[in-house]
Amino acid sequence: MDDDGAVGAQAAAVYFLELDSYMQAGGDTAEWEAMSHATCDFCADRLKQAERIKSGGYTWTGGEITITITHAYAQDGPTGIWPIDIMVKSTPAAVTDSAGATVSKFPASTEPRRVEVARRNGQWTVVELGAIPAG
């Protein structure tokens, strides 16, 4: 992630997304917050979920994520954003309460996504993650 070009952008995207299950399970949101752009809805939603799990005394299990880069685009000059298409594969996950009862279940999934990353103050920032636009 020290590379400030395409290789660093890809490494930052993978690193960030692989933080998700760690954050959900342990409640440590510092690195996620440091890498999340203020406009990233995906980032904010996952952060809120991790905070609800921690504050509610719940436990997150599973949900490990594997990222495969499927296409990396050239950096957009005006915005500085590196768009990267990825395949996100996650294992099943569950949230349980203190008695061990299942509160929520999340099935395994494999989904194509586009992640957009940029450099801000010398650090990689995830600007957004969402569906790959048509065309």
How would you concisely characterize the structure shown here?
The chain has 3 helices and 7 strands. The chain is α+β, with helices and mostly antiparallel strands. A hairpin with a 2-residue loop joins strand 6 and strand 7.
Can you offer a commentary on this structure?
The structure is a single chain. The protein is α+β, with helices and mostly antiparallel strands. The longest helix is centred in the first third of the chain and has 21 residues, at 6-26. The protein has three helices and seven strands. The protein has helices spanning 6-26, 30-35, 41-55, and strands spanning 59-62, 65-72, 82-90, 93-96, 102-106, 109-120, 123-130. The two termini are 30 Å apart.
Offer a few descriptive terms.
135 residues; alpha+beta; globular
How many β-strand runs? 7
- Using only C-alpha atoms, the radius of gyration works out to 15 Å
% residues in beta strands? 35-45%
Q: Uncertain segments of ≥5 residues (pLDDT<50)? A: none
The percent of residues in helical segments reads: 25-40%
In order across it, which strands form the biggest sheet?
2-3-6-7
Shape: globular
The run of helices and strands is HHHEEEEEEE
Number of discrete helical segments = 3
Main β-sheet, in a few words? Answer: 4 strands, antiparallel
Q: Structural class given helices, strands, pairing?
A: alpha+beta
Q: How far from one another are the termini? A: 30 Å
Overall pLDDT metric: 95
SSE order and pairing:
Blueprint: H1 6-26, H2 30-35, H3 41-55, E1 59-62, E2 65-72, E3 82-90, E4 93-96, E5 102-106, E6 109-120, E7 123-130
Antiparallel strand pairs: 1-4, 2-3, 3-6, 4-5, 6-7
